[in-house]
Design goal:
- With about 80 residues, the chain is α+β, with helices and mostly antiparallel strands.
- Helix content is about 20%, strand content about 10%.
- The protein is built from 2 helices and 2 strands; from the N terminus they run ββαα.
- It has helices spanning about 45-50, 65-70, and strands at about 5-10, 15.
- A two-stranded antiparallel ribbon has the order 1-2.
- A hairpin with a 2-residue loop joins β1 (about 5-10) and β2 (about 15).
- The N and C termini lie far apart (about 65 Å).
Length: about 80
């Protein structure tokens, strides 16, 4: 049987978010996948992260000015 549920880790104990249908004394295997805790950044820190991102085209990525050329290529049969 596989049951997926969320839990909170508090003071060394995992506290399940809901009861699960297991008999007392049932041995289980636990796989812990921690969800990312949101960072509490100040607006200045957020803006600094945005400013540090590469400018469009710095890494050879898609450019917005190529949008129509990619979606509506001209046919050579005109």
């Amino acid at each position: 049987m596989t049951i997926t549920t969320e839990a909170i880790y508090e003071q060394g104990v995992l506290k399940l978010s809901q009861p699960i249908p297991l008999a007392e004394g049932t041995c289980v295997e636990v796989i812990v996948i921690a969800t990312k805790v949101p960072e509490n950044n100040t607006p200045g820190e957020i803006l600094a992260k945005i400013a540090a991102l590469p400018l469009e085209g710095d890494r050879g990525e898609f450019s917005g000015r190529d949008h129509d050329k990619i979606l509506y290529p001209r046919s050579n049969t005109t």
